[in-house]
């Protein structure tokens, strides 16, 4: 039987990826325990969902900056995650950049999902960037988080077709369906195979 690493989930939005991860845990597709859910947005749907599902959850103030955690907030996030025994941090729509001490403590153990085929369209509203550019395919990418913005080694990707009738909303909805399939698979792979990281490249070997 596979071990059950403890994961901490961070999110700022409605929490549909967290729900997909929780369902995968329930259905035995993801061997992990969700030990803690943290949001930087007090009224975020992800906290409401976590509460409905009986998961331990907490709002932690992010500090004064718009795009990152301040030093004190970062420390408090770390303390809560470590206090809950978290071994892997899984970002599910967490809209702040993690840097420095956080990435040192969880080195190669922070996973993110991004709504495009990276390296195309990093940053905000990637589905809108894809539509504006006129690509015929986009998708989602699961990757390890490094010091850059959406630049870390790629674990898994899934493509999504763009239709001529798409609006930003319809395209994001289709990408989210792909995210909900891919994220549990990718997290399972990260947690239960030996990831070998060489520069930007990430390969997985079956754990012995
Ligand atoms: C997801 O589409 C995720 O890929 C995106 O936020 C959404 C969160 O949705 N993340 C980013 O854009 C990070 N750069 P959810 O709250 O329903 O999971």
Task: Report on the architecture of this protein.
By secondary structure, the protein is of the alpha/beta class. It has two domains: 107 residues, 3-Layer(aba) Sandwich (Rossmann fold), CATH 3.40.50.170; 97 residues, Rossmann fold (3-Layer(aba) Sandwich). Helices cover 34% and strands 25% of the residues. Strands 3-2-1-4-5-6-7 form a seven-stranded mixed β-sheet, sandwiched between helices. The radius of gyration is 16 Å and the shape is globular. The mean pLDDT is 96.
Annotation keywords:
2 domains; globular; binds glycinamide ribonucleotide; 7-stranded mixed sheet; Rossmann fold; 9 strands; 208 residues; alpha/beta; 6 helices; two-stranded antiparallel ribbon
Topology, element by element:
Blueprint: E1 6-11, H1 16-26, E2 33-39, H2 45-52, E3 57-59, H3 71-83, E4 88-91, H4 100-105, E5 110-114, H5 126-133, E6 137-144, E7 154-161, H6 168-192, E8 193-198, E9 201-206
Parallel strand pairs: 1-2, 1-4, 2-3, 4-5
Antiparallel strand pairs: 5-6, 6-7, 8-9
Helix pairs in contact: 1-6
- Global Rg: 16 Å
The fraction of residues assigned to DSSP E strands is 25-35%
Tell me which ligands are bound.
glycinamide ribonucleotide
Please tell me what the overall shape is. globular
Main sheet: which strands, in order across?
A: 3-2-1-4-5-6-7
Percentage of helical residues?
Answer: 25-40%
Overall tally of structural domains: 2
Q: Give the name of the CATH architecture of the largest domain.
A: 3-Layer(aba) Sandwich
Summarize the structure.
This protein is α/β, with parallel strands linked by helices and 208 residues long. 34% of the residues lie in helices and 25% in strands. Glycinamide ribonucleotide binds next to helix 1, strand 5 and helix 6.
């Amino acid at each position: 039987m596979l071990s059950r690493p403890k994961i901490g989930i961070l999110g700022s939005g409605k929490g549909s990826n967290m729900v997909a991860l929780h369902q995968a845990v329930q259905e035995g597709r993801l061997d992990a325990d969700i030990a803690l859910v943290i949001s930087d947005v007090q009224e975020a749907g992800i906290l409401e969902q976590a509460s409905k599902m009986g998961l331990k959850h907490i709002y932690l103030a992010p500090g004064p900056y718009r795009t990152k955690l301040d030093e004190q907030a970062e420390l408090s996030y770390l303390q809560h995650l470590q206090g809950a025994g978290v071994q892997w941090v899984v970002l599910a729509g967490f809209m702040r950049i993690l840097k420095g001490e956080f990435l040192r403590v969880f080195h190669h153990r922070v996973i993110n999902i991004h709504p495009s085929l990276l390296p195309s369209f990093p940053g905000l509203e990637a589905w809108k960037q894809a539509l504006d550019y006129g690509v015929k395919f986009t998708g989602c990418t699961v990757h390890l988080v490094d010091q850059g913005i959406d630049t870390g080694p790629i674990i898994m990707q899934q493509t999504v077709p763009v239709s001529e009738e798409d609006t930003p909303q319809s395209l994001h909805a289709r990408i989210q369906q792909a995210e909900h399939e891919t994220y549990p698979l990718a997290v399972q792979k990260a947690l239960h195979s030996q990831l070998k990281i060489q520069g930007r490249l990430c390969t997985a070997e079956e754990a012995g």
